[in-house]
Amino acid sequence: MSLASLQASVQRNEEGIDLALKILAQRFGERFSTSAAVREQHGHTTTWLPNQAPDGVVFARSTEEVADVVQVCAQHKVPIIPFGTGSSLEGHVNAPAGGISVDVSQMNRVLQVNAEDLDCVVQAGVTRTQLNEYLRDTGLFFPIDPGADASLGGMAATRASGTNAVRYGTMKDVVLALTVVTADGRIVRTGGRAKKTAAGYDLTRLMVGSEGTLGIITEVTLRLYGIPEAVSGGVCPFPDLDSACNAVITTIQSGLPVARIELLDANQIRACNAYSKLDLQETPTLFLEFHGTEAGVREQSEIFGEIARDSGGGEFVWATKAEDRTRLWKARHDAYWAALGLRPGCKGVSTDVCVPISRLAECIGETYKDVEANGLLAPLVGHVGDGNFHVLVLVDVDNPQEIAKTEAFIERLNWRAIEMGGTCTGEHGVGQGKMKYLAREHGAGLDMMAAIKKALDPDNILNPGKIVRLD
Ligand SMILES: Cc1cc2nc3c(=O)[nH]c(=O)nc-3n(C[C@H](O)[C@H](O)[C@H](O)COP(=O)(O)OP(=O)(O)OC[C@H]3O[C@@H](n4cnc5c(N)ncnc54)[C@H](O)[C@@H]3O)c2cc1C
């Protein structure tokens, strides 16, 4: 994607930016930076989208400080791009019209753990692993686990999910309420700690997935879960992708409450073997985990074993010790970095689609044929229990033909998923990279999104040039 096409829809406001830079430098001192390295690190750094750095970066420490930055930027009509850990994959944190990146990573305190209510309140910069380390002695855990150690504010902003989503849902299911700074610098609380509410519009879910375009999240109230009494899991190899997908479809359709069911194709297994020192058979493989009572997980595992056998799967290899399971899931979480090793020197372009479970085998089958027909090296991994999968195309970015081929492949994949009743993104979000698919996916719904954006951010200062085009 060219820099020009990313910049097309938003204009720089040089005068406003100059004024805002001076005011913020004075107010935030050392916690404000205009150094090239810091600015670049706060633009897009993953995949091949060009880096569009902001003009300055503020490291905020409280909701009030975020509100302060927003008020300055609102007064001078300067873009503000919220920043968690920068692990998003579709150019979400780029600054096509410049402006100020508000980095919330220093807002990293767990504010409350209400064990009796199974919830907690955290500042937006707390990461998912930091929260789970904090919860370690409470018997509780937070289940949403994207491959990166992302911030909970960023995860709420992108409606993230991960390997546990098939059992515990996505960020839309676990965020109970948010504290948000709006485009005019007001501080709004979108709800309380009640497990359900019918009190008016659901502002929490409006903000979840809004990618910093409707407000800056400063605090997140989250559901927590009890650590299950028993956990079992392991890996199951399959002769081909079709039989692995069919096993997944039968598992989900039969209502088996798997906690995790992840597909890795043969290339991805080869990459994980090398990167994470595993010795798995290099064939399409399902990684599974079951949560429940001792008797419950035994029964679930047996039922899955039968489904796998009926679908042509090989012998289920149990990871009986907790440390073996941790090693397997660490390898799964490191799949992206492992895959990069398959073609050193190339960039990995990760794309994410999701289809109804009944179309999973068909969508993956057609996608795989497309990969082969175009001679691409593109390992496939998926949170397949949700019908969600990723293809990581390894591209030589100095080769324009390869780039063109990859862009065309990604487009076909996204149209294919949408035409199957699915979506152009199950979890990574829209950013800049997926904007072009939204009209087909949402039709008139996209106009409604634009109307909401205009109502809440009339000057288009919150993460402009993302999700909806306002021109
Ligand atoms: C190796 C790897 C594996 C990944 N695996 C997964 C996966 O399994 N599942 C998944 O869902 N994603 C995955 N991702 C993508 C990424 O980790 C998620 O999108 C994550 O939620 C981004 O969080 P972040 O803190 O890095 O946000 P950032 O990248 O900093 O920001 C993402 C977006 O949210 C906005 N934002 C950030 N913080 C706030 C805030 N406080 N208030 C308002 N808006 C904010 C930003 O403006 C931007 O638009 C993966 C990424 C990598 C690199």
Keywords:
single chain, 471 residues, alpha+beta, five-stranded antiparallel beta sheet, binds flavin-adenine dinucleotide
What would you say this structure looks like, in words?
This protein is α+β, with helices and mostly antiparallel strands. It contains 18 helices and 18 strands. The protein has helices at 3-7, 14-28, 36-41, 63-76, 128-134, 152-158, 165-168, 171-174, 203-207, 241-253, 266-276, 294-310, 322-333, 335-340, 360-373, 400-419, 438-442, 444-456; strands at residues 32-33, 56-59, 80-83, 100-103, 110-114, 119-123, 140-141, 175-181, 187-189, 216-223, 225-226, 230-237, 260-264, 285-292, 317-318, 347-354, 380-383, 388-395. The protein has a seven-stranded antiparallel beta sheet, with helices on both faces. Strands 5-6-10-8-9 form a five-stranded antiparallel beta sheet. Strands 1-2-4-3 form a four-stranded mixed beta sheet, with helices on one face. Strand 17 and strand 18 form a beta hairpin. Helix 2 (14-28) packs antiparallel against helix 4, helix 10 packs antiparallel against helix 15 and helix 15 (360-373) packs antiparallel against helix 16 (400-419). The protein is globular. The two termini are 20 Å apart. The relative contact order is 0.13. Flavin-adenine dinucleotide is lined by residues 46, 81-89, 92-93, 104, 124, 146-148, 150-151, 153-155, 157-158, 160-162, 211-212, 216-217, 336, 427-429, 463. Residues 46, 81-89, 92-93, 104, 124, 146-148, 150-151, 153-155, 157-158, 160-162, 211-212, 216-217, 336, 427-429, 463 line the site of flavin-adenine dinucleotide.
